C-alpha cells in the first residue's frame, strides 16, 4: 500500500513496454482515478482532455472509426485500437460518411471527396452542411437544399424542397433524416 513513484525528479525518460514487448499495458484497476499530465496534452481524473486538436465529428462502419477535426482525418481499427495513417486535409472538413461498401468520403465547405485518393466527386455552389449515403447514392446537404449523386452513373439530381439544411444522416438502410429550419424530414428510397 505505499505510493510508488517512477522516475521522480530525475529528468530521465521513463519507458513502459517498449522494444520488442507485445504485452498489453494496463493502468489502474477500476478502484481509483487516473490522470495524464504531460507538457503537450493532459487527461484529468474526470476524463476531460486538454491540448489535443479538436474533434469535429466521427463516423463508423464495419469496425472502422473515422475521426476528423482541425488537424485532418484519422482512421482507427476498432477491434485492435490501431490508428491508421492520418490524412492531412488542407481545407476544413465539414462532414464525413461511409458508403455501403465501406469507402470513406469527406466534404469540405464546397466539395466532396473520396478519402482514398482524394478525388473530387462534386463541387457545391453553397456551403456543405453534411453528406450521407443510401445505396450508391450520395446525398449532399447545403444551404440551397440537397443534391443526390448516383456514384455509378454520375447523374446528379437537385432535391430543392429542403432549403437551409443544417444536418443530414442515414437513419436506416434506405432512409435519411434531414434537419432544415425548425423542421425534420425523411427521405426514403424504395428497394
Note down, in words, how this protein is organized.
With 191 residues, the protein is an all-beta fold. It is built from no helices and 17 strands. Strands 7-8-9-10 form a four-stranded antiparallel sheet, with no helix packed on it. A four-stranded antiparallel sheet has the order 11-12-13-14, with no helix packed on it.
Radius of gyration over all CA atoms, rounded: 22 Å
Distance between the first and last residues' Cα = 64 Å
Residue runs with pLDDT of under 50 for 5 or more positions? none
Give helix and strand order, one letter per element, not per position: EEEEEEEEEEEEEEEEE
Helix count, DSSP H or I runs of 4 or more residues:
0
- DSSP strand (E) fraction? 35-45%
Average pLDDT, rounded to a whole number, is 81
The global form is elongated
Spatial order of strands in the largest sheet: 7-8-9-10
Helix content: under 10%
Largest β-sheet summary: 4 strands, antiparallel
Quantity of strands, as a count: 17
Structural class: mainly beta
Keywords for this structure?
44% strand; four-stranded antiparallel sheet; mainly beta; single chain; 0% helix; 191 residues
Per-chain topology:
Blueprint: E1 36-37, E2 42-43, E3 49-50, E4 55-61, E5 64-69, E6 72-77, E7 95-98, E8 104-107, E9 111-114, E10 120-123, E11 128-134, E12 137-142, E13 145-150, E14 156-159, E15 165-172, E16 175-180, E17 183-188
